[in-house]
Fold each of these.
Amino acid sequence: MSNAAALERETGTNFMPRYDAQGLVTGIAIDAHSKDVLMVAFMDAEAVARTRETGLAHFHSRSRGRLWLKGETSGHFLRVQDILVDCDQDALVMLVKPEGPACHTGARSCFYRKLAGDGLVPVEE
Amino acid sequence: MSNAAALERETGTNFMPRYDAQGLVTGIAIDAHSKDVLMVAFMDAEAVARTRETGLAHFHSRSRGRLWLKGETSGHFLRVQDILVDCDQDALVMLVKPEGPACHTGARSCFYRKLAGDGLVPVEE
C-alpha cells in the first residue's frame, strides 16, 4: 500500500475497508448501552454490505464458509446503532442493541470468563 | 476439533487459546475506566505469554512479522488489568490503563471515526 493510500485511509472521510488476504476485517459487537463487549467475529464485504443495508449485524462464518446473520436461528439479532472504524480500516466496532443473549451458550456476552492465575474464572456481572 | 474439546474450551476453567491457521487470536484493548475500545490487533502465543508475564499489552505485527510491544517506540504502553476470554477462546479482551494515546496517529483511540451515510465522520468525544 502506498503512503498516500495509507494516509487517505487514516485521515480521510471515505469508507474503504482494508480486507486481509482472506477478504476479512474484524467485527466487534459492543452493547451500546452498557458498553460491554458482546462478541467478536469476522466480516467480509458481503457481511459489511448486508449489515449496513439491514441494520442487523452480519458476519462471515469461517467454519461454515458463508454469510451469517447473527440471530438467524436463535432470533437473537444485534441491532446496529453505529459503526466505528479504526485508523487503518481493518476493524469495525458495532454499537448494538442485542435482542437476547449474544453468545450461543446462552450467556449475555461471549466474554463470560477472565484469566486468573493459570486458569479461567467467571466474570462477575 | 472434537465436540468434547469444544465443550471443554467453552465451559472449562483451562486457558487454551484457539490460534488460527496463522497462529493468531484477536486482541482487543479496552480502556478499563471509560470502557472505550482503544485498538484491535492480533496476538500469537508469544504475544499472549509476554503480555501475561509483563502486564503490558503485546501483539504480533503481521506487517512486520514480529512481536510488538505496544508503546515500544512511543512510550504509550497499555497496562493490562484484566484479560477476558470468549467462548471459543479465539479472542481476548484486555482491560487496560493507557499511558498515552493508543493510536499511532496520536488519537486517544484508533476508533476516531464512524460511518455516516456513505462516508466517515469524527466520533464525538
Amino acid sequence: MARVTVWGEHRQERSDRPVAAIYPDGIHAAIAAGLRGAGHDVRTATLEEPEHGLSEAVLAATDVLTWWGHVAHNEVDDAVVDRVQARVLDGMGLIVLHSGHHSRIFRRLMGTTANLHWREAGERERLWVVDRSHPIAEGLGESFVLDHEEMYGEPFDVPPPDELVLISWFQGGEVFRSGCTWRRGRGRIFYFRPGHETHPTYFHPMVRRVIANAASWAAGPRGAALDLANPAPAEPLAEG
Amino acid sequence: MARVTVWGEHRQERSDRPVAAIYPDGIHAAIAAGLRGAGHDVRTATLEEPEHGLSEAVLAATDVLTWWGHVAHNEVDDAVVDRVQARVLDGMGLIVLHSGHHSRIFRRLMGTTANLHWREAGERERLWVVDRSHPIAEGLGESFVLDHEEMYGEPFDVPPPDELVLISWFQGGEVFRSGCTWRRGRGRIFYFRPGHETHPTYFHPMVRRVIANAASWAAGPRGAALDLANPAPAEPLAEG
Amino acid sequence: MARVTVWGEHRQERSDRPVAAIYPDGIHAAIAAGLRGAGHDVRTATLEEPEHGLSEAVLAATDVLTWWGHVAHNEVDDAVVDRVQARVLDGMGLIVLHSGHHSRIFRRLMGTTANLHWREAGERERLWVVDRSHPIAEGLGESFVLDHEEMYGEPFDVPPPDELVLISWFQGGEVFRSGCTWRRGRGRIFYFRPGHETHPTYFHPMVRRVIANAASWAAGPRGAALDLANPAPAEPLAEG
Amino acid sequence: MARVTVWGEHRQERSDRPVAAIYPDGIHAAIAAGLRGAGHDVRTATLEEPEHGLSEAVLAATDVLTWWGHVAHNEVDDAVVDRVQARVLDGMGLIVLHSGHHSRIFRRLMGTTANLHWREAGERERLWVVDRSHPIAEGLGESFVLDHEEMYGEPFDVPPPDELVLISWFQGGEVFRSGCTWRRGRGRIFYFRPGHETHPTYFHPMVRRVIANAASWAAGPRGAALDLANPAPAEPLAEG
C-alpha cells in the first residue's frame, strides 16, 4: 500500500453551488475516500494551506501525489512547483487528474503546453484499455462507460507517452489518450483524464479503480538516487 | 520518390460482385493509382502470380511493399513470407493495410496474434492525428472522416507501436489505433486500418495521402546492413 | 512472490567438463537457487523432460518462465514454442537469459533474427542502469561489474525495447542493450544479457538481484484476457 | 535541404587560448561549415547578438536550430527561451549538442535536470549505432571512434528517448546514450553528445555526418499546427 497525498485546489467546491452539491467535502475528499477504500494510506492537502499543504516534510513522507486543479493554477507558488518537481525526479509518483493537465507542475514536467480541445456538454465517454499488460489495467475489463463527462479531444500537446493504457471515445466524435504514463528521473507519472467538477466522476468504481491501481504502480520499487559526484576512471586510460 | 510494390490478394474483387463493382481492376490497382498520383514509382503483384509476384528480383528493386489480403492469408507460401521478412529486416519498408493485420507476414513480424474486434455495419469512422510531429501526418489536418467503413475495435493484439500517429473513432462506440509504426531491423513498418473491400476507401483522398506519406517515410535513409562477422577486440583486454 | 519456472537446456553442463565444474547441477539449478533466495516459489524444467517439462498444466501454474538455452535451440518442439508463446500473450512473464536470445521462443516473439556480435575472451563487463525509475533497477546502484564474461555487441537485432534498463560496457570496446523489456499481449518480457556457461555468472549477487526483480515485475497485475467475441454497436448507428 | 540556424555561445573560443587554437572562428563556425558541406542552407547566431541572434524573424525562417553552449547558460534570456520553446512546439527542429544538455532550452523541453557524470581526460570514445532503421544512422557504419573526448556517463537524467540511435563507450568504463530523439508538439529534437571545446570534434567527418543527417531528419514534413478553437460536436449527442 502506498502513502498517498491527495492534493485539491478546493475552490469551485466552495464557490459554485452545483459543484458543492456533488462534492460537499471537496473533490480531494472523494478521491481520498476511493484510495482509502483500496487500502492506501492517504492524507490530503489543499491550495489554501500554508505551502499549499506540500511542505518538504509532507513530500518526504509521500510515495504518490495526486493533483486536481482547475481555476487557480496560477496561484500555485513557484517554490512549491520546484519542490514537487524535484521530489518527482527523486522518485515520488505523480498522478495528474483531468484539468490538472494545465497545472504548472504537469506542464513543467512535460515541457509542452498540454493544450487540448474541450467541450462541456455532459456527453457519454467510453474508456478502452489498449495495453492489457499494464498493472493499471487490472480489473477494468475491456472498457467502461461514464454517462456524462466533459469532452477532451486530441490533439493533446504532451510528449508521446511511454505507455498508453486507455483511450477515450466521446459521443460527439472525438478521441483522447486518457491514461498515459511517463517516467521522469526516478519518478513515474500517470495522467488520467476523467473528473470534471460538475459530474460525480470520482465516485465511479472504475475511476476509483484506475486511480488506486495507478497509485500502486507509481509507488513500486525503483533504482538508486542520483549521485552527483563525478567518477575517476574505473579502467586504465593508457593508450591501447 | 519511392519504388513501391503494391501487393493484392485479388480474390474477392473477382468472386464477389459488390466488391468487383467498386474495384473492377482490383484493390491493388486503386492503391497503386493513388501512389502514382503522389509521384511514386509503382508496380503491382498478386497472389496468383508465380511466387505471388514477389521474387527475389522484385523485392530487391522494392523500397516499400504495401500488403492487402483478406480471405487467402493461408495460401501465401512460407518461402515468400520468409523472403519478405528477411527483406524488411534488411531495410525494405512495409505498409500493411486493413485486413492485412491477419496476414502471415504481419503476424510474423509482430510476434502476436494481431487479433481485434470487428463489425461490418458500414458505420462512420473519424481518424484523429495524435502525433503532429510525424511525416505521415502531413496534410491531414486534425482529423478526417470516412462515411462508411467496417469497424475495428480495441484491443488490437500488437506490440505497443513505436509511434502512434492516428486513432479512429467509430460510430458504434469503439476506438482503434489506426496508424501505427514499428521498426524491425533496418526496416520501417506502418499499419493503416481503413480499407474494407465493400467500401471505396482507397479512392478517398485522405486515405491516399496517408499511404503516399507512409511510402515516403518508409523509404527514407537508414543505417548499415547487418555485418555478421564477429569482432576482435578493438581495445586491449589486459587487466587494468 | 511469483511462481517461477526456470527452464534450462541442461546439455553443456553434462557434456562439457569446465561447465560441469561451475554448474554441477545445471545452470537452471543456480538460477533457481537465486530466485528461491529472493523468496520466489520456484520449480525447474529441462529440455529432455517430456514436453520439455512445459506441459499445459505447468505453464498454467507459472507466473514467470525463465529461459536459458544455447546449443539445442532447434531441438525445442514447435508445439512447445506455440504453447509458450500463447501463454505469454495470455499474461505469463518471460525472462530470456544470455544465449536464449537465439531461442525459438524469443525470435518468435520478437519477429527479428535476434543476431548480435559476440566474442569469448573472458573480458570485463560493466552494466550501467539507465532507467532509475524501473522496478528491475532496485538495489543495483549505478552499475555493477562482472570480471569475466562473454562479450555481446551491438547491433542487437531486436525491436526497440519498450524500456531500456541496463547497458553493458565491454573491455574490448563494445556496448550492448543488456536489460530490455517488451510487452506482448498481456505478457511482459525481459531480456538479460549475462550468463555464459563458462563463467559463474548466475552465482553473482547482482545478477541474481536483477533476475529476482524481473520476476517480481513480470508477475505483477495486468488487464483482462482477450475476449474474441465481436461486439454489437453500443451506440446508435442511425445517421446523425 | 534544411534552413539551419547554428547557435553558438562563442565565449570560450575568445577567452581560452587552447579553445581558440582549435576553433578560431568559433565552434558555431565549424558546425556551420559541416552543415554547408552537406548542402544545408546555414546561418549562425551567437549569445552576444541582440536577442542572441534569435529574433522572431530568424526563428520563423529556421527549419532546424542547433545549440552549443557551456559556460553562459544562465545568460540566455527568458524571453528567448520562451520563443525557442514555442517555435519547437510549432514544428522547428532542434539539435542540442554536448554541453548544451544543461542549456535552459533543453532542460525546459525535457522537464528534468539533464544531469550526467563527466570527466575531462581526453579519453577514447566509440559511438555504436543501435537503431539501424533510423535516418540519422545513414552512412555511419556500425560504429566510429573519437580518439580524444570528454567523458559523459550515465545516468543521464532525461526522459526515456523516443528513439535511441547511438550509444557511446568510453575508455574509462562508462557508457552514454549519445544520440537520442524526442518529439515535442510538432517539433523533433535530437541530442548528440560529442563536442568538447578542447577537441577538434566538429571537424570529424562522422560527427559532421550525424549532425547533417539530424538536420535533414528534423526538417522533414509534419502534421498540422495546433488549432486552439474548441469544437462543436460533430456527432449527435442525443441519447442512444
